[in-house]
Amino acid sequence: MLDRIGEIAELFTWLGLLMGVLVLLVALVVRLLEGHWLTADADTAEIDGDLQLTWIADDGEVYRRFLEPDERETVGAASRVTVHYRKGRPLRAHLDKRTHASRVLLLLGTILTGVGVIALVVQLVVVVGQG
To answer: Any stretches that span the bilayer, and where are they (predicted)?
Structure first.
């Protein structure tokens, strides 16, 4: 029985650690490709039932965009929020500093690496238990 648990733990160790590190490397590349994010304070205004953000970017221009429904829930009743945008692309402002893709990859890589580490501990306990 312990042999079977040890084999399964070894499989999860290899898969978890290898895939976890690989996904974390991909997350790092995605974050590097995202570039440097700038921040600006944006005012919110309700226009025809939609919520609009207005902010001044580092180039001195005024930019506006309407919020998506899920962003509207995040902002709530706040009259001023912080927006994040990439240099040269101020129209693509986000309420979060990182994109969903980089956050998902980081979370997935962390979970897979954690599974690999836990499986490694189980494998070591099985080896010690077999004595």
So the answer is: 12-33, 104-128
CA distances from 21 to 12, 13, 105, 120 (A): 14, 12, 11, 15
pLDDT at residue 115 in the model: 96
What does each C-alpha distance from 81 to 15, 25, 77, 94 come to in angstroms?
A: 42, 32, 10, 11
What long-range pairs does 59-62 form, CB within 8 A, spacing at least 24?
Answer: 59/90, 61/90
Kindly report the average pLDDT of the chain as a whole number.
86
The structure tokens listed for 32 are 């590097």
Query: What backbone torsions phi and psi does residue 58 show, to the nearest 5 degrees?
Result: -65, -20
Task: Tell whether pTM > 0.90.
Answer: no
Give me the pLDDT at residue 51, please. Answer: 79
Rounded-to-integer distance, Cα 58 and Cα 62, Å = 10
Burial code of 95-127, b = ≥16 C-beta within 10 A, e = fewer? beeebeebeebbebbeebbebbeebbebbeebe
Q: Is 45 a residue whose pLDDT tops 90?
A: no
